[in-house]
Amino acid sequence: MKYLELSIDAVIKEPWNEILISDLSDIGFESFLEDESGVLKAYIGISSFDEEKLNMLLKNRKQHVSLTHQTQVLPEENWNAAWEAQFSPVLIGNQLEIIAPFHVSTIKNGYTLVIEPKMTFGTGHHQTTYLICSYLLKYPPIDKQVLDMGTGTGVLAILSEKLGAKSIDAVEIEDWSVENANENAERNNCSRIKVIHGSKEQIPDKYYDLILANINRNILEDQLSAYAKQANSGSTLLLSGFFSTDDSQLKEIAVQNDYEFGSNYSKDDWSMLQFIKR
After folding, report:
1. How far is CA 17 from CA 23, 72, 89, 185, 215, in A?
2. Dist CA 248 CA 244 (whole Å)
3. Is the model's pLDDT at 118 over the cut of 80?
4. Burial of 189 from C-beta contacts in 10 A (0-12 / 13-18 / 19+)
């Protein structure tokens, strides 16, 4: 499969790179990198790319910030080279490191996750993945039934197992991400993760103690009612993948689905919301 690399050079990098990441997520872009000069690079499978939507998005944003862009088609074998050139270890305090197979572990005490990113999003670099990982380290899901929606590389599912989860169902719509998540689960010696190809329709008919959903706002709005149907009373829901400006809208929808708002966390204007099922 071939992939499209979009490079955007905004005159003002912050907060516009984060805003553009959110915008591009809404039209199907899955993975993002920032090079040393602050140029944003976004990736999408050619079969999912809609040039008209991209042009409309960029036209609207150019009314607010000066930017230039270019695109190129990458053969699949060049994707990993692009990741490896810019993929650095992620450290969360002294508790967790997320490294690639070509890195050397440096943490002495704590958890080490070895993640091969391939074509998928969720290496721990993004603020939203960082926020959920930090929460799980503080409140480990010991003996809990976990649902991880939009698992990507499988990093949150893998961390959940390392932290004592009883079982994890990891749902992912992209077929190459399913393959990647399975490979990463095996690489980290996980045995309690089941990766499921699909979307909300493929959520197993069972009840969960913890639901993780690190996806863009539009998908969360569409899927929240499905999460609520499979949530145990008193269970926790963690939502992320959006900016803090979207908090109120998602809180409203969650409350409509019988969730009670608990806490909010943020990093660089990205948000994570925690809810409890009534």
Report:
1. 10, 19, 21, 31, 18
2. 8
3. no
4. exposed
Residue 108 token pair? 């002495």
* pLDDT above 90: residue 126: no
pTM of the model: 0.76
Closest by Cα among 92, 189, 106 to 136: 92
For range 143-168, the mean pLDDT: 97
Residues 6+ positions from 264 with CB-CB distance below 8 Å:
244, 247, 271, 272, 273, 274
> Does position 178 have pLDDT exceeding 60, yes or no?
yes
In the chain, the domains with their CATH numbers are 3-79 (3.30.70.2360), 139-277 (3.40.50.150)
List pLDDT tens digits, range 85-115: 667 788 998 999 999 888 889 998 899 999 9
Please spell the DSSP secondary structure of 30-67, one letter per residue.
-EEEE-TT--EEEEEEGGG--HHHHHHHHHHHTTTS-E
Mean pLDDT of the chain: 91
Strands (E), the chain: 3-10, 31-34, 40-45, 67-74, 90-92, 96-99, 111-114, 145-149, 167-172, 193-197, 208-214, 231-243, 259-267, 270-277
